[in-house]
Amino acid sequence: MLSANPEITISARRGFTLMESRYFDGVTLGIAAASILLFLATGGTVLPELVRYWRGLGGEPDVILANALILNIAVILFGWSRYKALSRELVERRKSEEQALRLADTDPLTGCQNRRSFLPAVNALAAAAAGSGREVAVGLIDLDHFKAINDYHGHQIGDGVLLATAARFRDLLPEGALLARLGGDEFAFALAYHNEDHARIESLVDRLVGSAANAIEIGDAQLEVSVSVGVASSRHAGDADFRAAGGGEDLMNRADIAMYQAKKRGRNRLQWFEPAMEYEQRFRGELEAGIRRGLRAGEFVPFYEQQIDLDTGELIGFEMLARWQSPDLGLVNPDIFIPIIEEMGLIEDLAKGLMAQAFEDAKKWHPRLTIAINVSPLQLRDPWFAQKILKMLVAHAFPASRLEIEITESALHDNPGLVRTTLTGLRNQGVIVTLDDFGMGYSSLSQLRMLPFDRLKIDRSFIRDLKHDETNAKLVGAIISMGVGLELPLVAEGIENDAILNTLRGMGRLKGQGYHYGRPEPADQVLERLSALDLLAPEAGTLGEHEPIDLVETSPAQKTA
Questions:
Q1: What is the full per-residue pLDDT of the chain (561 aa) written as tens digits?
Q2: Inter-residue contact 190 to 125 (CB < 8 Å)
Q3: First to last CA, the chain
Q4: Which end of the chain is more exposed for a tag (fewer CB within 10 A), N or C?
Q5: CA gyration radius for the chain?
């Protein structure tokens, strides 16, 4: 059975080859020595007789001895030839196995150590450092946005960047330090240092970051990269903890956590590991596991916030807001879990479940009440997003005219053409499209003119300080004037008190929402509110005069923008 450890397998095979070499060398030399002795024993008698016979001076030699002599010569020649061939073969095999051993421990592109050999080397470095009272620092280095270089310039240029970066790191690291390429665009280093030299380590890493930022010229291309570095030191762990087996792996894990924080805080920087980061990482992992369980268990539910006509005070609809009813954490707001769900790639699963529940809830309301649903920018990257929404409307027998889709300004910049096609497809079926958080992004007047919006929603940050900040009041007034000019109705969110409400009423005809009218409520409380207002759906159903959706299966490219 082969060993699970490639290094042990190669070493064992190498040792076996050496034994083979000695065995065959001995056998071959023994045969050659025996043949030579036999030749000397018979040659002294037979050769003179053969010479005299060939010269015609004597009779025939002993045939058996003559044949034995010839055979003996053949054996000597064959043995020598075989010995030389075998020696060459063994030399080549030794070279091949030594090369295989080097390749097993080395990154073939940069010549640095690889992931498999780096960890044992770190543990060996730690053991040596512990004996001399020194600490060990391990750093993980990730090239920021390296994928863009490969995509734009090609992998050959990308390999050149990796080679140049590795060479710069190698030149800066002191003698005895370890340097590895762990894979892709991720490097790692490790070095031992005295505790009083901690500032020198930080200075060294700063130089590594600075060296990577220098332009790299490859052919006609001039490339600039930045790096995010996370560093962990053995001084952050107790001596017993670090010197235990796996101490090097713990340091690498902590350096990886620190590198993640460096990326999170803006990239192109050094971040030392701090114990709080490990707790945060552990909490993040538990949160992700809880989210997955919660999605399966139906713990994510819709809450509804009232939307009001500010002039009449009439309830016109609700905005659906996601909530997580976690058995461990209680009621969790979307500001906490939505970014994580987006990073996990589960936003579509969450949105589908919430919308299905919201459609069923809204069918119990009066047909004139609308429901607004926020859409993640990630969802708008799906070219079939509009078709999926319309299919859900058909599946739940919910009229498109009662649905309002809210998108943020950040969603407009990824792929404006696709966004326009998607929004047009929804509007063509009667869905209302609203630009959410208006004023916080970078949308231009040309985008407002070209993209098919039905209304604008003023961000709550402008509304919250309306009475106390004259600049805010002027900005809100300008936004309202622009909306009137573009013939786009406006919604103000974040109405918290009567003072803000009265100020907004004096600025124009608006719709609004906020805690002044009540906090978001679950579906059963909404039904109680609507029952008191006599705004429940008639028993006959909720479609009323709304026409059914005419859904045609076409690709986004076939839609008319």
A1: 333 344 444 444 444 454 555 555 566 666 666 666 666 656 556 666 666 666 656 656 666 666 666 677 776 777 677 767 777 777 777 777 666 666 678 888 898 999 888 988 998 888 888 778 788 999 999 999 888 888 888 888 999 999 999 999 999 999 889 999 998 899 999 999 887 787 888 899 889 988 988 889 888 888 888 899 999 988 765 444 444 434 788 888 899 999 988 888 888 888 889 888 888 888 888 999 999 999 999 999 999 999 999 989 999 999 999 999 999 889 998 999 999 999 899 999 999 999 999 999 999 999 999 999 999 999 999 999 999 999 999 999 999 999 999 998 878 777 788 888 999 999 999 999 999 888 765 555 666 767 788 999 988 888 887 777 777 788 888 888 888 888 889 999 999 999 889 888 888 889 999 999 999 999 999 999 999 999 999 873 444 444 433 333 333 433 333
A2: yes
A3: 65
A4: N
A5: 39
Q: What are phi and psi of 151, to 5 degrees?
A: -70, -40
Cβ neighbour number for residue 73 with a 10 Å cutoff: 13
Tell me the two tokens of residue 149. Answer: 């270089």
Taken in order 232, 233, 239, 242, is the CA torsion positive or negative?
Answer: positive
Residues 6+ apart with CB under 8 A from 506: none
Instruction: Compute the distance between CA of residue 371 and CA of residue 358 in angstroms, rounded to an integer.
Output: 8
CA distance 145 to 185: 9
Q: What is the pTM of this model?
A: 0.66
Contact status, residue 229 vs residue 269, Cβ threshold 8 Å:
yes
CA–CA dist 434, 427 (Å, integer):
11
Three-state SS string over 175-204 comes to CCCEEEEEECCEEEEEEEECHHHHHHHHHH
> In the chain, helix, strand, coil percent, each to 5?
55, 15, 25
